[in-house]
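1st attempt posting a full record on here, be nice pls
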Amino acid sequence: MYPYLIFHSFNKNPYSDNFYDLRIEDFISLIDFLSLRINPRKITLTFDDGFKSIIPAVEYSLKKGYKTLAYIISDYIDKDGFLSKQDIKYLHSIGCKIGSHSKSHRDLSKVSKEILKIELIESKKVLENIIGEKVNHFSFPYGAHNKFSLKKAKNIYKFNALSRPNFFNEENIIGRISINSLNCNKHNNILIILTKKTPYKYLIRLFLSYFLKTFLPNPFYIFLKNLITKNKSKDIFNAN
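the predicted structure (as tokens):
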């Protein structure tokens, strides 16, 4: 069982990626469906990037009994379309855990040791100053990491989240299932992945996505992704 789902933004949030941006009604439909079949307290809904539109989604999720965790990019706090400091304080006050999604959303598998340290530590400091307590959770931008960046993240954060399931049961690694505009309404498929052995078709898609991300320049990956999904995905953070 992989009891973590990833969401990003809702209702055409400014500067969001259309591939990951969902209608809030579709989000509610999905978690209502799941709550009738799985104890919501066993599921954590995570929200990457820190878009402002996650606020009603977090509020509704908590009312339904789900755990929630918002991963924030510290450089984007208070920017148009993103959470403000007051928003983060509010989410924390109602029971949403706050985690880091790095300082500026760079691909941490490709940066220097110095920049990696800045991306991991500076965001943690900013968020801790906002919520007034220790930040123990980190989510890798793009889900991208290598052995070195993973080791460094583990030295700084207690829990580190990937954008795929934790197939090898690595200690203190949070594996997650990504929800997007193509799979959000496939409720039964998501339920199967959450509760049973991972279907081979899902594994093939994950492997293909990993292969393409790793070996293709990011603009070509986005182009190919749009070609396959007939969607208008874009790298809103300008991956390095």
